[in-house]
UniProtKB/TrEMBL annotation, chain A:
It comes from Mollisia scopiformis (Conifer needle endophyte fungus). This is RNA polymerase II transcription factor B subunit 3. GO terms for molecular function: cyclin-dependent protein serine/threonine kinase activator activity; zinc ion binding. The keyword Zinc applies. Keywords: Coiled coil, Metal-binding, Nucleus, Zinc, Zinc-finger. Its main location: nucleus. Transmembrane segments: none annotated. It is found in: Nucleus. The lineage of its organism: Eukaryota, Fungi, Dikarya, Ascomycota, Pezizomycotina. PROSITE patterns: ZF_RING_1 (PS00518), ZF_RING_2 (PS50089). Signal peptide: none annotated.
TrEMBL record, chain B:
This is DNA 5'-3' helicase. The keyword Magnesium does not apply. One of its GO terms (molecular function) is 4 iron, 4 sulfur cluster binding. Signal peptide: none annotated. Residues 758-769 have a biased composition (Basic and acidic residues). Keywords: 4Fe-4S, ATP-binding, DNA damage, DNA repair, DNA-binding, Helicase, Hydrolase, Iron, Iron-sulfur, Isomerase, Metal-binding, Nucleotide-binding, Nucleus, Transcription, Transcription regulation. Belongs to the helicase family. RAD3/XPD subfamily.
Length: 366, 795
């Protein structure tokens, strides 16, 4: 106990309660509030901040500091330990730049190495000497310049993820609330039921029809059945809820969307390559009845191009070669099953409910 | 006595057997054959342990698989009792069979109970013994010694290394006393002998924690194979054990000490960097590779181990940003600092792990993944640094465990920050409760891993609650009635005082003088008629105090004082044990005594009041939990959401299991007798939730008594008990000789044949009709105010 007390008084050490600048303390000014400026992390009370910095930027009143601070920069510290506060601010800065995501890496090892590097950088910034700091800052700047686009993209992805998470949480909360309401309602109904049937029994008893014991027994049974049925029903609801909500909530597992592929130019032949494969079109063919056309300018005046002529002639000469009708007929007889249907069927088979009609349809295609 | 169950020959070390024991064994065998789990309720005092042991040992010896038995009990004394019974059983078996079987049975308990080291064993606290032992036996200490450095070691431990590792101790059953003596003679440590021999034992007997507490379980129990038979005895509270094993409380003080631990680590790291940076480098290299050190896994005494982590995670490499020792320590410091900041909030906060993590990430940039590795990373670091005074790092370890758990489980846990101890407190004393709401989480690995898990107790009603709460399915679920040759216990429900005013500990009426006076009157009257000892249970300390002071004012205690000595249980364990001792002395001499205690206290759980130590037990009020507790509220909510257990059902179940525990305290055998009085009108509706064997013994004429009627009945009952009663009167009814057993079997066989024949004759006719609903005649006509009163605070 004694040790406990001692450590407690140690913990609430005076520096927590006295402003290092104006020395006013918490006992006299209970509203004392400390602020810090992330330029130098020296803390001072809000009155001091008002007093010193209201009229514009001034230098930090803490001895040997002298950094120029602005009032705008002051805020309350989140952490009790200002070193950690500073570290987290640095992390924020670094994290905004080095924001790669695990799925950008090939292997886990690469990702881990990356993490370690970043951590090392942060460490240099937090604890390193002047030189380390400079170097680290330089690194950070260089990286930022080099990867501006990526950083932006990752930032957006990160925000999206957070948004998604928040939405999920909200949805869950709402669902829980609904369930709670339902439970309350259910309890209420049950109470009403009991009340009602009790009244009925009393009425029946009062009217004096039938055997008293029989009436009470009957009533008991009815109530029990009702409550049992209700319970079963609500259980069913719960189950359906459970299965229904799951797919919605696991959106997180989706693969990260890929940047859209730049649109390619339009291709009229849909990718069919018309380059001749069985011959090579020459620049020039020796033929004497074409000699005239070669020499005489007038032939070309109307747009006639010998080259086009060569191409067409050769194409016609070779067209039809290498086409085997029997083969093509044969391969056509086997219907080319689209692969997606195959997986579907496999999936169905694995669940054990193969639909026969479906198969029949496939056969009927031809 | 020797008999067969189906084809299995069972040796039972007594000449007579109770019918319920036989039924119990049959169901046990069914469970084992089917390879599933079961919940069995066996009346207290009917030889549950010996039936269990003799059947399972017979099973082990008869079938070639030799399935190992892991028998878990709650208290040290229960474990010792079980070991003694096992020893007797094995002796009987070898006498009967004519040879000694190759069999090893052993118990395990903490170092504190087993240590032989002359100075270590004198330490008072268990954690200190553990820590000191670790500093003498850790792997690196031995290495240092081998290198010729001058370090202290424990000779008892090192001697073990000279022995064959699978034969540290001869076969047979070893009680704690036995193993201590053996250890003393052979200068070997009993604790480590038991630990290391665990995988070579046929029967292991230890406490729940070795299996349920994930921090211990991984170390102690992971080598046990899948086909082990696991038994949880006295398991009526198993859900609470599960929950406690995963919950932690974090206070400002523990955070302070964790910070200190982290600072120490920091200095240690920089020291090591200067002196022996190679070690750190090695650790680093290992972590990069993502290899879990093999011998590290085997090391029997790691500083701590991972709480219930999924296996796939364990195989993954440690995340890069906590790979380096100094990075990791900074990480921990940041996390602790964050927690400290959270503790400054002056209003109650309750949040789920995901929302906690989101907030954490926003402010400290700590991601979920490294957090999950926290516990493991810390273990590795502590080992690398070769720290000996590990107990200094306990708070840090708690924080790391918390970090791992909070990052691992999204569901089933809740963080509750309570800035003030009570609603009226002025000085803040914030506690961050990280509470597990789902008992199924801790016990899941057990159900997953072992094919047969048997949950049994004297009072484990209603049976279907347990599979629901712990999320498992049973193959057998049974509650046995108690066969008695004469009515040897008298349960009564007293609802009114002699003046016909209802008595109840319900919130609105509990302090009304008429109610208190009626309770006092009941106490006085019962103390007049009861011979020897009498035990009285109150729902809570608070209520007990207030009612005692009121009784004092009314002169009731003075009246009682004439008949009995009055002793009181207090929250202080030492005071209570002194009171107990005095109570026992008083019961053995003269007029006897009254012990006033609390239904959820120590007395109600572990202490038996057999024979003259308890002739009457009086339960004043229904022992409901304190429903204003935030943790309980959260758990109730969770149970409803997840397992469809309604608040009222759970509270009432929980109250009744404690009441049943209290009642069960006085009846510890068939030759025992006692009166059980439930004094509260609300018991009238809850009697169906009592264990079958108690409920069946309540006669219809004794459920709604007034004080004077109850006293009259008690007098008559006691007069009956005073009649001579020979053991032979029980013969064939409540105890069976071999002949009776045979006859019973024959009859049962005939019964089966007849049923089969009947089924053949009219195949449709035997369909069970029934909608599967439990019919509870008292459900009808629920008294509104009564139910409302029931839910009130029971502080
Ligand atoms: S090894 Fe055994 S005897 Fe030695 S200190 Fe540890 S527990 Fe005690
Ligand atoms: Zn100031
Ligand atoms: Zn400054």
């Amino acid at each position: 106990m004694i040790r406990n007390g001692a450590s407690k008084s140690l913990e609430s050490n005076p520096s927590d309660d006295i402003c290092p600048v104006c020395k006013s303390n918490r006992y006299l000014t209970p509203s004392l509030q400390f602020l810090i400026n992330p330029e130098c992390y020296h803390k001072m009370c809000s009155t001091c901040v008002d007093r010193i910095f209201t009229s514009g930027p001034a230098s930090c009143p803490v001895r040997y500091c002298g950094k120029t601070l602005r009032k705008k920069g002051f805020h309350k510290a989140f952490f009790g330990d200002l070193k950690v506060e500073r570290e987290c601010d640095i992390r924020k800065r670094v994290g905004a730049v080095y924001n790669k995501r695990q799925d950008e890496f090939e292997t886990l090892l690469d990702w881990n190495n990356y993490l370690e590097n970043v951590e090392g950088l942060v460490f240099d910034l937090v604890e390193g000497g002047k030189e380390d700091k400079m170097r680290a800052e330089e690194k950070l700047r260089a990286y930022k310049e080099r990867n501006l686009g990526e950083i932006e993209a990752n930032k957006r992805a990160g925000l999206e993820e957070i948004e998604m998470e928040k939405r999920r949480e909200r949805a869950e909360k709402e669902a829980a609330r609904q369930r709670r309401l339902a439970a309350v309602r259910e309890a209420e109904e049950e109470k009403m039921d009991v009340e009602k049937s009790r009244r009925e029994v009393l009425e029946k008893l009062a009217s004096g029809e039938g055997d008293a014991r029989e009436i009470t027994e009957m009533a008991q049974k009815v109530v029990l059945k009702k409550s049992g049925a209700r319970r079963i029903a609500s259980e069913a609801i719960l189950q359906s809820n459970g299965s229904a909500k799951d797919p919605n909530l696991t959106i997180r597992g989706l693969k990260k969307r890929e940047a859209p592929v730049a649109e390619k130019p339009y291709e009229p032949f849909g990718g069919v390559d018309l380059a001749p494969s069985r011959y090579v079109l020459q620049e020039d063919y020796d033929s004497e009845w074409l000699a005239n056309a070669k020499k005489d300018q007038r032939h070309a005046a109307g747009g006639f191009s010998l080259h086009e002529y060569y191409a067409r002639t050769m194409f016609e000469a070779f067209s039809g070669l290498g086409v085997f009708i029997e083969d093509e007929m044969g391969s056509k007889a086997l219907p080319a099953v689209p692969s997606s249907i195959g997986t579907e069927a496999a999936a169905e088979a694995s669940t054990g409910k193969i639909k026969v009609e479906h198969k029949m349809e496939l056969d009927d295609v031809f | 006595m020797k008999f067969n169950i189906d084809d299995l020959p069972v040796l039972f070390p007594y000449p007579r057997i109770y019918p319920e024991q036989y039924a119990y064994m049959c169901d046990l065998k069914k469970t084992l054959d089917a390879g599933g789990h079961s919940v069995l309720e066996m009346p207290s005092g009917t030889g549950k342990t010996i039936s269990l042991l003799s059947l399972i040992v017979a099973y082990q010896m008869y079938y070639p698989e030799k399935r190992k038995l892991i028998y878990c009990s709650r208290t040290m004394s229960e474990i010792e009792k079980a070991l003694a019974e096992l020893k007797a059983l094995m002796k009987y078996r070898s006498d009967e069979l004519g040879y000694v079987e190759d069999f090893r049975g052993m118990g395990l308990t903490s170092r504190k109970n087993l240590c032989l080291h002359p100075s270590v064993k004198r330490e008072k606290s268990g954690t200190v013994v553990d820590a000191r032992c670790r500093s003498l036996t850790a792997g690196f200490v031995k290495e240092k010694k081998d290198r010729g450095e001058d370090v202290q070691v424990c000779i008892y431990h090192d001697n073990l290394d000279l022995l064959e590792p699978h034969n540290l101790i001869p076969t047979g059953v070893w009680t704690f006393d036995g193993i201590m003596k053996y250890g003393e003679q052979h200068k070997q440590c009993p604790y480590f002998t038991a630990r290391r021999m665990m995988s070579f034992c046929n029967v292991i007997i230890y406490s729940y924690h070795y299996l349920l507490d994930p921090k211990i379980a991984e170390r102690v129990s992971k080598e046990l194979s899948k086909d082990c038979i696991v038994v949880f005895d006295e398991a009526h509270n198993i859900d609470n054990v599960c929950i406690e094993s995963l919950s932690t409380d974090i206070t400002e003080d523990s955070l302070r000490r964790a910070t200190r631990g982290a600072q120490n680590l920091e200095t240690k790291i920089s020291e090591m960097k200067e002196s022996d940076s190679e070690k750190l480098q090695n650790e680093y290299a290992k972590l990069v590779e993502g290899l879990r050190d093999q011998d590290e896994a085997r090391e029997e005494d790691a500083f701590m181990s991972n709480p219930a982590l999924p296996d796939d995670l364990l195989k993954e490499a440690v995340p890069g940003n906590i790979r380096r020792a100094e990075h990791f320590v900074a990480f921990l410091k940041r996390f602790i600092e964050y927690l400290k900041t959270r503790m400054k909030v002056r209003q109650v906060i309750s949040e789920t792990p995901p929302s906690f993590l989101a907030h954490l990430k926003e402010y400290t940039f700590i991601e979920k993944k490294p957090l999950r590795f926290c516990a493991e990373r810390l273990t590795s670091l502590v080992r690398t640094l070769e720290l000996t005074n590990v107990e200094d790092y306990q708070p840090l370890q708690e924080v790391a465990t918390f970090a791992t758990l909070v990052a691992t489980y999204e569901k089933g846990f809740l963080l509750i920050l309570e800035p003030y101890e009570s609603d009226t407190a002025e000085v803040p004393n914030p506690v961050l409760h990280f509470t597990c709401l789902d008992a199924a989480i801790a016990i899941k690995p057990v159900f997953d891993r072992f094919s047969s898990v048997i949950i049994t107790s004297g009072t484990i009603s209603p049976l279907e609650m347990y599979p629901k709460m712990l999320n498992f399915t049973t193959v057998v679920q049974e509650s046995y009635p108690m066969t008695l040759a004469r009515r040897s216990f008298l349960p009564m429900i007293v609802t009114r005082g002699s003046d016909q005013v209802h008595i109840s500990s319900g919130f609105q009426v509990r302090n009304e003088p008429s109610v208190v006076r009626n309770y006092g009157h009941l106490l006085t009257e019962l103390s007049k008629v009861t011979p020897d000892g009498m035990v009285v249970f109150f729902p809570s300390y608070l209520y007990m105090e207030s009612i005692i002071s009121m009784w004092q004012g009314m002169g009731i205690l003075d009246e009682v004082w004439k008949y009995k000595l009055i002793l009181v249980e207090t929250p202080d364990a030492q005071e209570t044990s002194l009171a107990l001792e005095t109570y026992r002395t008083a019961c053995c001499n003269g007029r006897g005594a009254i012990l006033l205690c609390v239904a959820r206290g120590k007395v109600s759980e572990g202490i038996d009041f057999d024979h003259q130590y308890g002739r009457t037990v009086l339960c004043i009020g229904v022992p409901f939990q304190y429903t204003e507790s935030r943790i309980l509220k959260a758990r109730l909510e969770f149970l409803r959401e997840t397992y469809r257990i309604r608040e009222n059902d759970f509270l009432s179940f929980d109250a009744m299991r404690h009441a049943a525990q209290c009642l069960g305290r006085v009846l510890r055998g068939k030759d025992d007798y006692g009166i059980m009085v439930l004094a509260d009108r609300r018991f009238l509706k809850k009697r169906n939730q009592l264990p079958k064997w108690i409920n069946q013994a309540i006669l219809e004429s004794e459920v709604n008594l007034s004080t004077d009627m109850a006293v009259g009945t008690a007098k008559k009952f006691l007069r009956g008990m005073a009649q001579p009663f020979k053991a032979s009167d029980q013969e064939g009814i409540s105890t069976w000789s071999l002949k009776d057993l045979e006859a019973h079997k024959e009859k049962a066989d005939e019964e089966i044949i007849r049923a089969l024949r009947e089924a053949q004759e009219n195949p449709e006719g035997k369909e069970q009709i029934g909608d599967g609903m439990q019919v509870d005649p008292d459900d009808f006509g629920i008294d509104e105010d009564d139910e409302a009163a029931m839910m009130e605070i029971d502080a």
